[in-house]
Amino acid sequence: MKANNFFEMTNEELTNKVAELKSELMDLRFKHSTNQLSNPMVLVTCKKDIARAKTVLRLRELGRIEEPEKSAKKTRSRQKKA
């Protein structure tokens, strides 16, 4: 997942994402220990995603960046043909 995606999430979404990634990491570790994991780089990417999410949460805690406002999905208005 790209770092920009984490900056667009709210704090609640980030904490949920961290919990989800931690449970996924635990599952991947079990699969890796029993040689069921075909691509071990998935472990590394999962760890990095956790670090990215925690970094964004910490930056918001320190006040370096602000939490995005919850708003409706952005839709582009189409121009009607005359």
TrEMBL record:
The keyword RNA-binding does not apply. Keywords: Coiled coil, Ribonucleoprotein, Ribosomal protein. Residues 73-82 have a biased composition (Basic residues). The keyword Protease does not apply. SUPFAM superfamilies: Ribosomal protein L29 (L29p). Residues 63-72 have a biased composition (Basic and acidic residues). One of its GO terms (cellular component) is cytosolic large ribosomal subunit. GO terms for molecular function: structural constituent of ribosome. Residues 63-82 are annotated as: Disordered. Residues 4-31 form a coiled coil. GO terms for biological process: translation. Belongs to the universal ribosomal protein uL29 family. This is Large ribosomal subunit protein uL29.
